[in-house]
Protein backbone atom coordinates (compact mmCIF):
# COMPACT_ATOMS: atom_id res chain seq x y z
CA UNK A 1 0.00 0.00 0.00
CA UNK A 2 2.85 2.36 0.86
CA UNK A 3 4.43 1.68 -2.54
CA UNK A 4 1.13 2.48 -4.26
CA UNK A 5 0.87 5.83 -2.47
CA UNK A 6 4.45 6.60 -3.42
CA UNK A 7 3.75 5.88 -7.10
CA UNK A 8 0.57 7.97 -7.04
CA UNK A 9 2.39 10.82 -5.29
CA UNK A 10 5.18 10.84 -7.86
CA UNK A 11 2.67 10.68 -10.71
CA UNK A 12 0.84 13.71 -9.31
CA UNK A 13 4.10 15.64 -8.97
CA UNK A 14 5.21 14.75 -12.52
CA UNK A 15 1.78 15.65 -13.88
CA UNK A 16 1.91 18.97 -12.07
CA UNK A 17 5.36 19.71 -13.49
CA UNK A 18 4.21 18.75 -16.97
CA UNK A 19 1.21 21.07 -16.71
CA UNK A 20 3.45 23.88 -15.48
CA UNK A 21 5.86 23.40 -18.40
CA UNK A 22 2.99 23.34 -20.91
CA UNK A 23 1.52 26.49 -19.35
CA UNK A 24 4.87 28.32 -19.47
CA UNK A 25 5.52 27.36 -23.09
CA UNK A 26 1.95 28.15 -24.05
CA UNK A 27 2.15 31.55 -22.36
CA UNK A 28 5.35 32.41 -24.19
CA UNK A 29 3.90 31.42 -27.57
CA UNK A 30 0.65 33.28 -26.91
CA UNK A 31 2.48 36.47 -25.91
CA UNK A 32 4.76 36.23 -28.95
CA UNK A 33 1.84 35.57 -31.30
CA UNK A 34 -0.10 38.50 -29.88
CA UNK A 35 2.79 40.92 -30.42
CA UNK A 36 3.95 39.57 -33.78
CA UNK A 37 0.48 38.63 -35.12
CA UNK A 38 2.01 35.35 -36.27
CA UNK A 39 0.77 31.99 -34.98
CA UNK A 40 3.53 29.53 -34.09
CA UNK A 41 2.42 26.00 -33.14
CA UNK A 42 -1.27 27.00 -33.14
CA UNK A 43 -2.40 23.53 -32.09
CA UNK A 44 -0.19 23.59 -29.01
CA UNK A 45 -1.37 27.09 -28.10
CA UNK A 46 -5.01 26.15 -28.43
CA UNK A 47 -4.38 23.01 -26.37
CA UNK A 48 -2.79 25.06 -23.55
CA UNK A 49 -5.60 27.65 -23.66
CA UNK A 50 -8.36 25.03 -23.67
CA UNK A 51 -7.03 22.78 -20.89
CA UNK A 52 -4.94 25.17 -18.80
CA UNK A 53 -6.66 28.53 -19.26
CA UNK A 54 -6.57 29.58 -15.60
CA UNK A 55 -2.93 28.56 -15.18
CA UNK A 56 -1.87 30.31 -18.40
CA UNK A 57 -3.69 33.48 -17.33
CA UNK A 58 -1.96 33.26 -13.95
CA UNK A 59 1.37 33.24 -15.79
CA UNK A 60 0.42 36.44 -17.57
CA UNK A 61 -0.62 38.13 -14.33
CA UNK A 62 2.63 36.97 -12.73
CA UNK A 63 4.62 39.04 -15.22
CA UNK A 64 2.14 41.94 -15.12
CA UNK A 65 0.63 41.31 -18.55
CA UNK A 66 -3.06 41.63 -19.39
CA UNK A 67 -4.54 38.13 -19.22
CA UNK A 68 -7.25 39.08 -21.73
CA UNK A 69 -4.52 38.49 -24.33
CA UNK A 70 -5.08 34.77 -23.75
CA UNK A 71 -8.75 35.09 -24.69
CA UNK A 72 -8.00 37.25 -27.73
CA UNK A 73 -5.43 34.79 -29.07
CA UNK A 74 -7.74 31.85 -28.36
CA UNK A 75 -10.55 33.49 -30.33
CA UNK A 76 -8.17 34.36 -33.18
CA UNK A 77 -6.94 30.76 -33.32
CA UNK A 78 -10.46 29.33 -33.44
CA UNK A 79 -11.40 31.84 -36.14
CA UNK A 80 -8.36 30.82 -38.18
CA UNK A 81 -9.14 27.12 -37.83
CA UNK A 82 -12.75 27.44 -39.05
CA UNK A 83 -12.46 30.24 -41.62
CA UNK A 84 -11.98 28.03 -44.68
CA UNK A 85 -15.04 25.92 -43.85
CA UNK A 86 -17.00 29.09 -43.08
CA UNK A 87 -16.10 30.45 -46.53
CA UNK A 88 -17.17 27.21 -48.19
CA UNK A 89 -20.58 27.37 -46.53
CA UNK A 90 -23.36 28.83 -48.74
CA UNK A 91 -24.19 32.34 -47.57
CA UNK A 92 -27.87 31.47 -47.13
CA UNK A 93 -26.79 28.89 -44.53
CA UNK A 94 -24.99 31.50 -42.43
CA UNK A 95 -26.42 33.58 -39.58
CA UNK A 96 -25.08 36.82 -38.14
CA UNK A 97 -25.78 37.78 -34.54
CA UNK A 98 -25.39 41.36 -33.32
CA UNK A 99 -25.74 42.14 -29.60
CA UNK A 100 -28.48 44.62 -28.74
CA UNK A 101 -25.92 46.81 -26.95
CA UNK A 102 -24.69 48.01 -30.36
CA UNK A 103 -27.92 49.96 -30.84
CA UNK A 104 -28.21 53.70 -30.26
CA UNK A 105 -29.47 54.98 -26.90
CA UNK A 106 -32.70 56.13 -28.51
CA UNK A 107 -33.26 53.03 -30.63
CA UNK A 108 -37.01 52.66 -31.37
CA UNK A 109 -36.84 48.95 -32.29
CA UNK A 110 -39.13 46.47 -30.55
CA UNK A 111 -38.35 43.01 -29.26
CA UNK A 112 -39.90 40.03 -31.03
CA UNK A 113 -39.35 36.28 -31.06
CA UNK A 114 -36.60 36.89 -33.65
CA UNK A 115 -34.79 39.51 -31.59
CA UNK A 116 -34.86 43.29 -31.92
CA UNK A 117 -36.70 44.40 -35.05
CA UNK A 118 -34.50 47.07 -36.63
CA UNK A 119 -36.38 49.74 -38.61
CA UNK A 120 -33.22 51.37 -40.02
CA UNK A 121 -33.87 54.67 -38.28
CA UNK A 122 -30.32 55.87 -38.97
CA UNK A 123 -29.39 56.48 -35.34
CA UNK A 124 -26.66 53.84 -35.45
CA UNK A 125 -24.73 51.67 -37.92
CA UNK A 126 -26.62 48.46 -37.19
CA UNK A 127 -29.39 49.10 -39.70
CA UNK A 128 -27.03 49.71 -42.63
CA UNK A 129 -24.86 46.74 -41.64
CA UNK A 130 -27.90 44.48 -41.45
CA UNK A 131 -29.07 45.56 -44.91
CA UNK A 132 -25.61 45.09 -46.42
CA UNK A 133 -25.31 41.58 -45.02
CA UNK A 134 -28.84 40.60 -46.09
CA UNK A 135 -28.12 41.76 -49.65
CA UNK A 136 -25.26 39.25 -49.67
CA UNK A 137 -27.60 36.50 -48.47
CA UNK A 138 -26.99 36.39 -44.72
CA UNK A 139 -29.76 36.11 -42.16
CA UNK A 140 -29.13 38.79 -39.52
CA UNK A 141 -30.44 39.00 -35.96
CA UNK A 142 -30.03 41.53 -33.17
CA UNK A 143 -30.34 39.62 -29.93
CA UNK A 144 -30.52 40.46 -26.22
CA UNK A 145 -28.92 37.26 -24.97
CA UNK A 146 -27.59 33.77 -25.56
CA UNK A 147 -31.00 32.14 -25.06
CA UNK A 148 -32.22 33.91 -28.20
CA UNK A 149 -29.21 32.66 -30.14
CA UNK A 150 -29.82 29.04 -29.17
CA UNK A 151 -33.50 29.30 -30.08
CA UNK A 152 -32.80 30.93 -33.44
CA UNK A 153 -30.12 28.34 -34.24
CA UNK A 154 -32.63 25.56 -33.57
CA UNK A 155 -35.23 27.30 -35.73
CA UNK A 156 -33.11 28.32 -38.74
CA UNK A 157 -30.63 25.42 -38.67
CA UNK A 158 -27.55 27.25 -40.03
CA UNK A 159 -24.24 25.63 -40.95
CA UNK A 160 -22.14 28.65 -39.97
CA UNK A 161 -22.40 31.61 -37.61
CA UNK A 162 -20.71 35.00 -37.39
CA UNK A 163 -21.09 36.40 -33.90
CA UNK A 164 -20.36 39.92 -32.67
CA UNK A 165 -19.89 40.55 -28.96
CA UNK A 166 -17.61 41.02 -26.00
CA UNK A 167 -14.82 38.52 -25.33
CA UNK A 168 -16.94 36.46 -22.92
CA UNK A 169 -19.85 36.22 -25.36
CA UNK A 170 -17.61 35.29 -28.29
CA UNK A 171 -15.85 32.58 -26.27
CA UNK A 172 -19.20 31.09 -25.25
CA UNK A 173 -20.53 31.37 -28.79
CA UNK A 174 -17.56 29.59 -30.36
CA UNK A 175 -17.81 26.83 -27.77
CA UNK A 176 -21.51 26.46 -28.62
CA UNK A 177 -20.63 26.20 -32.31
CA UNK A 178 -18.11 23.44 -31.56
CA UNK A 179 -20.72 21.47 -29.62
CA UNK A 180 -23.28 21.85 -32.41
CA UNK A 181 -20.80 21.14 -35.23
CA UNK A 182 -21.23 24.63 -36.69
CA UNK A 183 -18.48 26.74 -38.25
CA UNK A 184 -18.16 29.74 -35.97
CA UNK A 185 -16.39 33.07 -36.45
CA UNK A 186 -16.26 35.83 -33.86
CA UNK A 187 -15.72 39.59 -34.05
CA UNK A 188 -14.87 41.14 -30.68
CA UNK A 189 -16.24 44.58 -29.82
CA UNK A 190 -13.73 47.42 -29.62
CA UNK A 191 -15.59 48.72 -26.57
CA UNK A 192 -17.76 46.41 -24.49
CA UNK A 193 -20.49 47.20 -21.98
CA UNK A 194 -24.26 47.14 -21.55
CA UNK A 195 -25.00 50.10 -23.85
CA UNK A 196 -23.31 52.15 -26.57
CA UNK A 197 -20.74 49.48 -27.38
CA UNK A 198 -18.37 49.95 -30.31
CA UNK A 199 -17.52 47.65 -33.21
CA UNK A 200 -14.85 48.17 -35.86
CA UNK A 201 -17.36 48.32 -38.71
CA UNK A 202 -14.63 48.32 -41.34
CA UNK A 203 -13.58 44.87 -40.13
CA UNK A 204 -17.19 43.69 -40.24
CA UNK A 205 -17.78 44.86 -43.81
CA UNK A 206 -14.44 43.48 -44.93
CA UNK A 207 -15.32 40.11 -43.42
CA UNK A 208 -18.76 39.71 -44.98
CA UNK A 209 -17.58 40.99 -48.37
CA UNK A 210 -14.53 38.73 -48.60
CA UNK A 211 -15.95 35.50 -47.20
Keywords summarizing the entry:
alpha/beta; 14% strand; 7 helices; 2 domains; two-stranded antiparallel sheet; elongated; 211 residues; single chain
Oligomer type:
single chain
Question: Quick check: average pLDDT?
Answer: 91
Largest sheet: 4 strands, parallel
The CA-CA distance between the termini, in Å, is 61 Å
Relative strand content: 5-15%
Helix/strand-derived class? Answer: alpha/beta
Based on Cα principal axes, name the global outline: elongated
Radius of gyration: 20 Å
Stretches where pLDDT falls below 50 for ≥5 residues? Answer: none
Number of strands: 6
Total of DSSP H or I helical runs spanning 4+ residues = 7
Order of strands, widest sheet: 4-1-5-6
Helix content: 55-70%
What order do the SSEs take from the amino end to the carboxyl end, as H and E?
Answer: HHHEEEHEHEHEH
Amino acid sequence: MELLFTIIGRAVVYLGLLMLIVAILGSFLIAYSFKSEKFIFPGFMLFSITLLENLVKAMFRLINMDDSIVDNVGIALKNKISISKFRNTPVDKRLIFFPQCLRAFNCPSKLSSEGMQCISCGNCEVGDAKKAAEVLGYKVFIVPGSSFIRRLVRKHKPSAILGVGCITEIKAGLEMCEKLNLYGEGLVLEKAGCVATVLDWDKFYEFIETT
